[in-house]
Amino acid sequence: MAKKEFKAGLYAVIVGVIMAVVLASLTVFAYTTRYTAFSPEKVAAQYVDTIVQTGDGYNAYKNTLLSENQKIKYGDFIRRTQMVSFRNDGDDVKQADFVGTGTAEEQKAIDTVYNTMYDYYVELVNTVGWDDYETFFMSYFAKLKEVRHEVYGDDYLDYDYMFGALEANVDTYGESLRGNEQVLAADNKTVLKEAKDGKYQEMFGKDYKLTVSVKSFDELSEEEAKAYIAGFKERITPVAQSGEAKAAQFGLEDITKEKKVLFFTKEETDSRKSDMVGTYERLDCSDEMTSAGKAEVEVWSDDGGVIATQEVYLVKIGRSWYVDNTNIDTSGLYLGK
What we know:
The structure is a single chain. The chain has helices spanning 8-34, 40-54, 57-60, 74-83, 104-127, 133-152, 159-178, 199-204, 222-240, 243-249, 272-281; strands at residues 183-184, 191-193, 211-219, 255-261, 264-270, 289-300, 306-317, 320-323. The protein is α+β, with helices and mostly antiparallel strands. The strands form three sheets. Strands 3-6-7-8 form a four-stranded antiparallel beta sheet. A two-stranded antiparallel sheet has the order 1-2. A two-stranded antiparallel ribbon has the order 4-5. The protein starts with 7 loop residues before the first helix and ends in a 14-residue tail after the last strand.
């Protein structure tokens, strides 16, 4: 019997084909699981789920037009339009002596500020609501500036501190709804936080479960979409054009300073005004929209009953869908109010 030859070329082709199939499968998997923006149903469901599970209207905006169409991160949008008016972190601004020491005094100050701001945060959720994000942000940061001064005795306020307080309050509010488990220290004995039921346990039972599902999604016809996009432009134009007035209201200007670095001097520009004006202008993304649609979303309790419904309008930019946050009322999703 003739000896069978090992055909390296053919083997390589077979392996190549197999690897191509595997890589294609992995690519499709990653594509479909990561890029939920390509599915209007998933975007609508995620938006509603973020709010209803923990009352988190703050992070829900990551699924809206405030985020991706800005060509900047959501956090940068907040910095450039909402935080910048209260930012006060120049080299000449003195902080309280205990800042950065890690002492009990500093921790007490942080806790006092966060706790005081939490009460105000809940008040804003109940009275203003996250649909009016501008009033919410501006009210919150104005109050934070006052509370920081009262507790710390200084007027310092940077972006990290503002985000730290706000996001701590967002988390605490979510915990007040869903409850929390007991938290132990590294010794597995010392109790750092007692287990506590949240408001949802009181409302729906100890082992409650809320499920969000999209009942329907209807993409608008070409003519209907054009009319909807025109309506969006009408709603957003006053906001997009408000940057100049807001910058003037808070006295924001672009400032160029010289800064010494070793033996050299270089210029640094703090473009507060330009950033604010440009970011507001980019809110009008109507020219980029190619379609629009409406989703009907339902929230179910574990006993099979619908406890909330939400109408969500979405618009398409490129291949991605975004919730139109200029045309929505989410007050019915804050079940813990």
